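Protocol step 4 of 6.
Sequence for S-acyl fatty acid synthase thioesterase, medium chain (Cynoglossus semilaevis) entered exactly as in the expression construct, tag removed. Do not edit the line below.
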Amino acid sequence: MEKVISCFMTRPEAVARLICFPWAGGGSIHYARWGNVLSSSVEVYAVKLPGREARAKEPCFQNMQQIVDEVISVLLPALKEKPFALFGHSFGAFTSFAVADALKKLHNLEPVHIFLSGASAPYSEIRIKTPRRSNLSDDDFLKWMTSIGGTPPELLSNPEILQLFLPALKADLHIVENYRCNKPEKPFLSCPVTCFDGKEDMPHDLQAWKDITSGDFTIRMLEGSHFYLKEAANEKHILDYVTNHLEACEMDYF
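Step 5 output, structure tokens:
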């Protein structure tokens, strides 16, 4: 479990677990520290992918199925214990979707809520037509990274750190660019789905996410660009929203 999951604050008494998936090239720490902030009703599991953090020496995954297989094999016992929700930003929204899809098909398990951020639905036309970035030269790739914001300037100007950072980022983008799935013929989930996004980010087809659930569907737009969720006020808004909904799910679940 410790190899794949960061959990800064174990909470045996929690009513629900929040499973968080990183953005492209991202680690687990940003989400893991949410466990120190959220109330005792929520336990946070932040997914650690190979090629970064303590798994830096492991080769990065090459396709979505590898992520789904590892996450489910490690988390399945915990997901059967108590209600769980999924949160993913950008690349993490795709992995959240893929994991939820597999859990439903293979184990008839579904989250009590899915929180998706900064991404079009994987089967939407906007997403399918998105230009490929993982094959860009390092220089052009860094120009693109700078344009979308959210990457610290000291990181972009430090060649040694960049050499550690770029392989995982490009590997994750390669996974996204080659991930294909069909629009669901009918919703495969019944849980609520909430989409967050930055108002100044590139347009995303958030509405298309509604096709995955027969439950409530909500879109919430916040100030900022692609990494809007790193801003303190937005992060507080998201965490308050998540907490309120997960605490409310306890009454519906039991």
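Step 6, annotate. The radius of gyration is 17 Å.
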